[in-house]
Amino acid sequence: MNNRAVPLVFNLLFLNLLFNSITMFKLILLKELKEIIQSNRFVISFAVCSVLIILAFLMGAQNYLASQAQYEATIQENRAQIAANTEWYNINHTITLPPQPLMALVNGVSSDIGRNIEMRSRGELIAENTRFNDEPLFAIFRFLDLEFIFGIVLSLFAIIFAYDAINGERTSGTLKLCFSNSISRASFIAGKFTGSFLGLSAALLIPILIGAALLPVLGIELTSDEWLRLTFIVFSGLAYFGVFLTLAIGISSITRRPSTSFLLSLVVWIFAVLIIPRSSVMIAGRMVDVPNLDEIASQKNNYRIQLFDEDRPKLQNFSIPKGTPPAKAFPLFSKFMGELSEKRQDKIEALEERLNEELENKKREQQKLAFSIARISPAAVFTFAVSRLAGTSLDLQHRFNDSAKEYQKLYSNFMEEKTGKSSGGIRIIVSDSDEQEEKKNLDPDEMPAFNFSETSFKETANSSFTDIGLLLLFNLVFFGGAFASFLRYDLR
Amino acid sequence: MEHTESNITPAPMLEARNLTKVYEDGIKALDNLNLKVEPGKIFAMLGGNGAGKTTAINLFLDFIQPTEGMALINGINANKEPLEAKKHVAFVSENVQLYPNFTAMQNVDFFVRLGGKTHYSREQYEAALHRVGLQSSAFDKKLKDFSKGMRQKTGIAIAILKDAPAILLDEPTSGLDPKAGIEFIRLIGELRNEGKAILMSTHDIFRAKEISDHVGILNNGILMAEHSSDDLRGVDLENLYVEYMAGYMEHTESPIANALKPS
Ligand SMILES: Nc1ncnc2c1ncn2[C@@H]1O[C@H](COP(=O)(O)OP(=O)(O)OP(=O)(O)O)[C@@H](O)[C@H]1O
Ligand SMILES: [Mg+2]
Fold first, then answer.
1. How many other CB atoms are there within 10 angstroms of residue A365's CB atom?
2. Lowest CB count within 10 Å: A249, A294, B58, B174, which one?
3. Sign of the CA dihedral B82, B86, B89, B90?
4. A180 touches chain B (CB under 8 A)
5. What is the pLDDT of residue A474?
6. d(CA B99, nearest CA chain A) in Å
């Protein structure tokens, strides 16, 4: 006997089995595709989804154009205000966060954070004028953006299609008829998942592509970097959709009745989409104590008073050397006062910086915790992924602040150059000339321009890919669960 | 009734050996069932509701695991090598349900391919649907608009097209009108003549007697009696059945039963 014959036969058997499995897998996949497309359920929900998705693009576009107009108006107003002045120290220079198309599609925090910062040469910068502040109606209803539509609609769409994937075929008896043939359970469920995922996501891509194609038509030009990020936003959307699809298939393979699995899927959906992301913030709030702003303000104030008290004896001890002519005495006193106040200011700023840093650190810690808790929910993971990609995650706020701080140096130098005064302290202006020279209006172009650097794909890739990976992991875990429970599923 | 020339008897296509099923809740649905169906034979399982007929068929299809014994299809243990065993069997369930959003044609195409037959043309599908008595106008209608009988016919067409040597039928005539019932019985006869081994469960005593080569009477999971069609010739099977069901055979002397008893 040829002893090599055994492994050969074994290999052939294995190949045959593999071939059969693939054939069956393909057959089920195609069946699933056809069945979905021919169902009323699909026709109706596809129509609704398409309308909503295209609407999200339209609203996003409109939103962006409106923000753009408002942005330009603010800039114009600022320039006009500078141009109306004759002295640089009189101006109120305001910098503004420029709107971006992806911001309009995935709002994130962009409407919650202040867009305008009034420049000061030194000290804290405070962003004001949030979008919701200006248009409170939107704060109630939020915007119908892509993240919302995807987050809510895609997940519901998935559940509507898959809640009865397995138990529906059981109650209808087709499961028995299928398995009276030589097909493995693995091929069956893999084919079913792949078929429904491909069918439904291809269907979803149609309105998404139409929506994306509408952007240039509506006059919104995306850079190639923005297109790339939008592509990944859509990809995250599909991965997120897959999570709920596998979840619903899993639920339908641990329950006997479609009505049960529908209810169960809905409950899981409510928790995953609505409850967990919200409660994570509450839980994190309980676990990490962040000092509130009033506390910090009063701390700063107390310190200011304390410093002033400390300086009081110095003031009392100040004496002008005997024989100083009165004309020189005043500048001397002024200089002394200036120095004192500058020292105080430095100390206060040091404290401010320390407190702010502490606050920032605590906040970040709380945020990190909240995010970690929220990541139990695929909906939160999806939100993190797409808001990062769109540049509207909480990082936007830090980014704007950092840009503003960077700009503050430029501004401060500029102002010093123009007004000849060092920033801060008490500014005593002594006009010592009586001659009325012709005052010229200021040229706003002289003011250094504020450049906000938008997030780039490269920057977001790192952080958003973790979340996209997490979404894929959810897919894998839920599919594994569905797979395992289907292997033991009672087909009758 | 032992076959004297058992050495030339063809190997059974379907065989239950000491097949026993006790469900999780402790119900003994099938108790030590032994039966053989050879190619070209029809075995009818008679029995009241809950007798264990569906349980027996489910065991052949590996939908449930036997507590004891084995179900063999073409000599292959259906619970040990289900994928191999099921290549040799076609199945029509009690209440055929197909994909409601598919047309009859699409359903047939899918299930026949699933059964491993990929070479059929549309004409052959049509011929099979004609053969089971489905009107042509229904071929491209969606299944959700089908009556129970029409679904049953489509299911039978699928089983025919799978062209497997063994066929399992669970109350195949339950949804059919009398005409369709007669046609169905004729069809089953044809399949038998083609050499298929057919195991069917039924409540229909007359048809069972008319068509079957063997009739087994199940009660409470126990095969009470098994008779060949020759044994039953001239016997009032209905009475016999009722007697078995009532458990007469064990205690009292029944004239019919006496007539059947080997002397
Ligand atoms: N999944 C199950 N779990 C527990 N008991 C079951 C299960 N399925 C069937 N039984 C029980 O097993 C017995 C046999 O049931 P089976 O369905 O095989 O009967 P049947 O002969 O097909 O009846 P019918 O003519 O009504 O179809 C019944 O007592 C039934 O209650
Ligand atoms: Mg039954």
1. 15
2. A294
3. positive
4. yes
5. 95
6. 7
Taking the C-alpha atoms of residue A219 and residue A315, their distance in angstroms, rounded to an integer, is 64
Fill in the DSSP letter of residue B142: B
Q: Whose CA is nearest to atom 19 of ligand 1?
A: B50
Three-state DSSP state, B145: helix
Confirm or reject contact between B29 and chain A (CB < 8 A).
no
**Residue B62: CA count within 13 A, CB half-sphere:** 25
Amino acid at B167: I
Q: pLDDT band at residue A345, thresholds of 50, 70 and 90?
A: confident
A26 inside 8 A of chain B by CB = no
Please state the pTM of the whole predicted model. Answer: 0.83
**Contact (CB<8Å) B86/A172:** no
Three-state SS annotation for A273-329? HHHHHHHHHHHHHHHCCCCCHHHHHHHHHHHHHHHHHHHHHHHHHCCCCCCCCHHHH
Contact call for residues A395 and A455 (beta carbons, < 8 A): yes
**Ligand nearest to the Cα of B221, by number:** 1
Asked whether the beta carbons of residue B98 and residue A184 sit closer than 8 angstroms, the reply is: no
Contact check, Cβ <8 Å, A179/B61: yes
Structure tokens at A359: 């606050």
Interface predicted TM-score of the whole assembly (ipTM), two decimals: 0.88
Residue A194 scores a pLDDT above 90: yes
Identify all chain B residues contacting A34, using CB atoms and an 8 Å cutoff.
Answer: 102, 106
Confidence of residue A254 (pLDDT cuts 50, 70, 90): very high
